[in-house]
Every structure is written in structure tokens, then in C-alpha cells.
Specification:
With 91 residues, the protein is an alpha+beta fold. The protein is 19% helix and 33% strand.
Amino acid sequence: MFTIDIVLQDMPLPISVQRKEAEAAESLYQQILNAMRSGSSDLVELTCDKEEDKKVAVKGNLICAVSLNKKSGGMAEGRVPGFFAATTANK
């Protein structure tokens, strides 16, 4: 499963959708990049392969960042949703 996280202006949490296939995830990633580059306020409509009833539409000019990650087995790898994670080291 591949997760695409999208950060919007003035929104602290990312929007996430999943794709089962690498090709579909890369295609969506490129579609979002194109929307960001164009600066247009056209809507980008997103659906999710994992939660089939999940739908969201965002204006392309409000997208600040996009991330594509391969998800394998939940939180086993220590990853958290989104782009940034703070960690502390034991001393």
C-alpha cells in the first residue's frame, strides 16, 4: 500500500489517501505536482483505495507539499503520518 500525504495552506494536518499499486500512486503524485506547478485554483479530486468511500477535493493552488511513501505493516517501522516527526534520544 502506498500513502500520498498532502499539506494545504493554513491546515496543520495532512490529507492522506492510499493506492494499492505503485504505478497508481506515482500517477497521483505527478497529478498533484502538476496542480502545484500550474498555480491554478482548479480542483484536484482524490479518492482512496483503502477506504473506498473516502473522497476529497482540494484547490490546486492551496497545496503546499506532497509526499509519497510505501506503507508496510502500520507503525512497525516507526513512521508517523505526515511529513515531520519529532524524536527524543535517551541519554
